[in-house]
Amino acid sequence: MKKIIVTGNVGRDPEQRTTPSG
């Protein structure tokens, strides 16, 4: 389940990239 990354939270936290921050 590592495809739920968002273009905004990607590169922030490898464990918090599942949070749609925008």
Concise account of the structure shown:
By secondary structure, the chain is largely without helices or strands. Helix content is 0%, strand content 0%.
Care to describe what's here?
The protein has 22 residues and is low in regular secondary structure. It is globular and about 15 Å long.
Could you list some keywords that capture this structure?
0% helix, little secondary structure
Uncertain residue segments: none
**Beta-strand percentage range:** under 5%
Distance linking N and C termini: 19 Å
- Counting DSSP E segments of at least 2 residues, the number of strands comes to 0
User: Which value, in Å, is the CA radius of gyration?
Assistant: 7 Å
Secondary-structure-based class equals little secondary structure
What are the SSEs and their pairings?
Layout: no helix or strand
